[in-house]
Amino acid sequence: MSLNKLRIKILLVDDHSIVREGVRMILEDDDDLVVVGEAVDVDDMLRQVRREMPDVVVLDLALTVGDSLPAIAKILEINPTARILVFTGVIDEAVHKKAILNGAHGILLKHHAGSVLVRAIKKIHEGEIWIDRHLTAKLLHETSSKQKSLSALARKIESLTPRERQIVRLIADGHNNQSIARNLNMSEKTVRNRLTEVYSKLEVSSRLELALIASAADLDLS
Predict the structure, then answer these.
(1) Percentage of the chain with pLDDT > 70?
(2) For 147-215, CATH number?
(3) pTM of the predicted model as reported, rounded to 2 decimal places
(4) Is the domain covering 8-140 a CATH 3.40.50.2300 domain?
């Protein structure tokens, strides 16, 4: 890690001490990450968000005390720049949908290896969305009610210009606006303007929905 590079500050929220200890060991083995606090319930978490102002909150959905889902919005009220990664053993697309709609920036199931957790944290810290691939189709269906079928979505994809398709493909590959601008030799302002056009053509209202669509299987973005 560069001496001038700030480490990503992480708050762990899980009511199982063995989980927190294991996750802390994994994260602090990476020079780019530092765990600034651990919380066992919602009230404890919100206190620590105020005190530590973490960059990323790694949040379990199944806390014994307090409701994690509405707490997501409260985190963002306290610290609007915080990024929230739901780290859960709950396999329920309805719950995942609610988490995203409440403001979560990523969902990762607990059965993944520690290296995946580290990548997910770094990606959402860079401004991207992280969603398990096998959850994407379900979340796409739940989150984007305007898209009645993949065939209808494919027709919308066909309305994109070649440059717009390049942008969507880069989003699918995990690039942020700055990286897209660099790859396509354009300004970030131009990228934002192009994204506005893409949102309109695909009938989506957020980068999250676009990321889900871009990740949908078997769509031709070439």
Answers:
(1) 82
(2) 1.10.10.10
(3) 0.64
(4) yes
Q: How far is CA 58 from the centre of its chain?
A: 11
Cα separation, 55 vs 44, in Å, equals 17
pLDDT, tens digit, 9 for 90 and up, residues 150-203: 556 667 777 888 898 888 888 877 778 888 999 999 999 999 999 889 888 888
